[in-house]
Amino acid sequence: MDDKGEPPSTLRAKSLFLIGRNSRGNWVVTDQSGLCGGMFVNRTEAVKFAMFENGNRPQAVILVPGILELDMSRKPRAAVPPRPALEPVARAA
Length: 93
Fold this sequence. Notes:
Elements: H1 10-13, E1 17-21, E2 27-31, E3 37-40, H2 43-53, E4 61-67
Parallel strand pairs: 1-4
Antiparallel strand pairs: 1-2, 2-3
C-alpha cells in the first residue's frame, strides 16, 4: 500500500483485525466490528492492509486458523449515542 492512501480512522486504529482464508482459499481481512475489510491476493497484502488500518499495531492482528468469511451483509454495530450537550449553569446573583 502506498503512503498516499487514506489514513486510518481513529476508530479503526483501535480495532482488532482478523486475517484468514475463506472457503475458496482467498485471503480475507475484517475488523472486529465488520465495518472494514477486504479480500487480498496473498497473505502479505492482507497483513499490510490490517497493519495500516490499525495504526501499525501487530498485537491487534490475529491470524485465524480456520475458515474466515467476509460478511458483506452484516450490519454495523449500533454506535454509542452522542452525549447531550451540557448547558451552562446560571449563577445565582
